[in-house]
Amino acid sequence: MPEIQLGSTLVNESNPPYIIAEVGVNHEGSLAKAKELIELAKEGGANGVKFQTYKAEKIASRHSPAYWDLNMEPTTSQFVLFKKYDTFEPDDYLACAEHARVVGIDFLSTPFDREAVEFLDPFMPFYKIASADLTNLPMLRQIAGKNKPVVLSTGASNLGEIDIAVHELRRHGCGGIVLLQCILNYPTAYENAHLNMMDGLRRAYPELVIGISDHTIADPDMLVLTTAYLKGALVIEKHFTDDKTIKGGDHKHSMDAKDLKRFTSNLAFVRSLLGQTHKEPLASEGPARDNARRSIVLARPVRAGQVLTEADMTYKRPGHGVGPLHWDEVIGMRVVDDLDEDHVLQWSDLVAPGDSASGTTPVE
User: Fold this and answer.
1) Is the dihedral of CA 22, 134, 124, 234 positive or negative?
2) CA-to-CA dists, residue 63 to 66, 71, 113, 231, 272, angstroms
3) Which residues in the chain come in under a pLDDT of 70?
4) CA distance 277 to 157
5) Using one digit for the tens of pLDDT, what is the confidence trace for 242-299?
6) pLDDT score recorded for residue 357
7) Where in the chain is the domain with CATH 3.20.20.70?
8) Which end of the chain has the smaller Cβ count within 10 Å, N or C?
9) For domain 12-274, which CATH number applies: 3.90.550.10, 3.30.830.10, 3.20.20.70, 3.40.50.360?
């Protein structure tokens, strides 16, 4: 069973999924709002709260075109958009990390350049690598060299590219890998979610924990994430905001605190339904096992010494007598005493044809 330690949480099939509330840059440059979102993420049941650490000059050239839905975010230049949201400075991230520690939630931030990797390292229990950097060998090697677990999104990638990334992370000392199914559309249409791709990742990497980074618009019942969990997602990441109506950025395809609480409530309910894997009767099934199962019952009166035939027998509830599992065994046995129709046969009523003793009880 694949498992990995993320912060203080052991992630495996026996435990609830590790939930990452990705604030990203939804703090809109406000440290007060960032701290509030940290508190809301903790209140909603997330294990980690994640930001993004970048500077526009280091992540995109001035000629980088948009790749998102312009109806949601009208900015046509990556550089211009990133410049709008890169106002957080080192002291702001340090303040967020400290606030997360006080609140009791893992602090995370996705680094997008070499300096960010080094700066964030002391404050994070593991690294999250964005889909866009899955083919960024220098960054993969640098992060792997920190000897921490890595959660790697796989949006817009194929298995060959993922193979290379996994190989490089392992070769350079990575402390464990989680692969997240992801569709690199902002937002992702429901018909493009392709949750079944997690099955493909699991077949290709059976030794790794598999999860999802979801970019769909949060549905009212949080069925996308709930279904992802039922499909085996053990790490679940989704953008997080305090107001989904804010124009631009990642707000539109984010969940809010109400959505997160709904999802964690769904998880608790679903996990209560799933129960154990070993098939056995429950204690609560005892009365049904005894009373709803059948016994062999006489279909007509019989006399002492009579050899039973199939015509003498039927099967009825309750299961307090000889069960019909022994049907073939009972045919041909003799009854010890006169017995009435509808009598529930007991082993003490029967002896083998050549046996003169009564009350013989076969071992069941």
Assistant:
1) positive
2) 10, 20, 18, 40, 52
3) 356-364
4) 34
5) 999 998 889 999 999 999 999 999 999 999 999 999 999 999 999 999 999 999 999 9
6) 52
7) 12-274
8) N
9) 3.20.20.70
Q: Which fold has domain 287-351?
A: Type Iii Antifreeze Protein Isoform Hplc 12 (3.90.1210)
Give the C-alpha separation, 16 to 21, whole Å: 15
Q: Which amino acid is at 110?
A: T
Closest CA to 168 of 204, 133, 144: 144
Q: How far apart are CA 97 and CA 100, in angstroms?
A: 5
Query: Are the CB atoms for 198 and 228 separated by under 8 Å?
Result: yes
**Span(s) in the chain for CATH 3.90.1210.10:** 287-351
Q: For 177-316, where are the E strands, in sequence order?
A: 177-182, 209-214, 235-239, 295-298, 313-316
What pLDDT was estimated at residue 81? 85
Question: Which has the closest alpha carbon to 179: 156, 199, 157, 150?
Answer: 150
Structure tokens at 281: 């009767």
Rama region for 28: left / alpha / beta (φ>0; ψ in -120 to 50; rest): left
Provide the pLDDT for residue 61.
87
